[in-house]
Design a protein that fits this description.
Length: about 475
Amino acid sequence: MTSFIDRVVLHVSAGNGGNGCASVHREKFRPLGGPDGGNGGRGGDVILEVDRGVATLLDFHFHPHQRATSGKPGQGSNRSGAEGSDLVLQVPDGTVVVDAESGEQLADLVGLGSRYVLAAGGAGGLGNASLASPRRRAPGFALLGEPGEAKDVVLELKSVADVALVGFPSAGKSSLVAAISAARPKIADYPFTTLVPNLGVVYGSDHPSYTVADVPGLIPGASEGKGLGLEFLRHVERCSVLVHVLDCATLDPGRDPVSDLDALEAELGAYGGGGLTGRPRVVALSKIDVPEARELAEMVRPELESRGLEVFAISAASHEGLRSLTLRLAQLVEQHRFENVPPEPTRIVLRPRPVGGREFTVTEVGEQAYQVAGIKPLRWVRQTDFTNEEAIGFLGDRLAKLGVEAELAKLGAQPGAEVTIGEVTFDWEPTLADQAATVGPRGTDSRVVTQVRKSRDQRHAEFIERHTPFEELEAADPGTPAP
């Protein structure tokens, strides 16, 4: 029997962007040909797409970790890195995407070809050829690629069927599906034979085809988690017609078709999803091939019809009453299709940021401690190579131009104040934006002093000190500490 999985936890990671390249063009008779470092490639996205050939989430149950490929780094001679390939994951029609942490519904994929970008790939870093400007004619740095998004989501499958069969265990639902369609579910005379939803297609020359869903049986308390019904009730949320399959041949004490119907309606009403109480209902009194069941069906028919329900006495074994039932279901399905517009494939909605809004915020989180938030500052910090002085100076210029320096001064920040952007914390030096970087060796910035190059005399003095015996040093300077 094929395994059926309708709920999985999926861990996805988009591809990282490739780093930009810092390169200078060199050829004969042109020792300084200018910067020619290429840009890094963009990382691949992770995309969910509805495929008609997929009916279960089984693949993701065995492979819950999915990752797209990363972009390649840029190279010299203005060669950009290759982009990462998108990872397209095929999912069944009716898949709901829920954020695993917040519980927020991210997408409801209905319709063949519906797509949803689950995790976006990181942007590639710019090479020094793209960073060149009149102020920086030959940048000695490049931007790093951004990391791709990583998400943990829950995929839930809600079957897209026209008719749903609901009833107690062993009420004859699977037998009914097998009798009116080509589906062959497991049938046995013990409760909870049906462990997974079964779908069947009903064809007819005098009516349009429609699909029927058979879900595991409901018992009292299913809406509170008892039995198997609650786990699969979401599979009837999208159905247009509900068929109550009531067992007229049950031998359980205290059970009859009317009490079974009341129990089923109570569980459907208690279930919070989909508004199941407002769906059209049809009652199917099953197993009338048993003489006692036929008598009981005739007894309860007036009571059920007095409630406004259409009642059909059927037998899956002898096929009695099946044609009238299937024709009526076809009429109800056709009416529902006429009154309701077919669902269109889920559209990808682009929500651009408003123009003119604030692009960052500065919050005081302590005494002379500030937190900077915003899309641009966070992205710029991720792109900065903090081992390169010139790259640090370039970041300071970008933040100052954006207005972060002015906002810090407005809030009373003093030199040396602790400023945090993302995962990076540094001491604020307001003079960085007030002075221009002087021309120097590539990869350096006169405003950023991270390494102090020792002079020749200093290196010579250290050499003499390392090779002079301690007795001579102590005689020259009695306060010299012992090595």
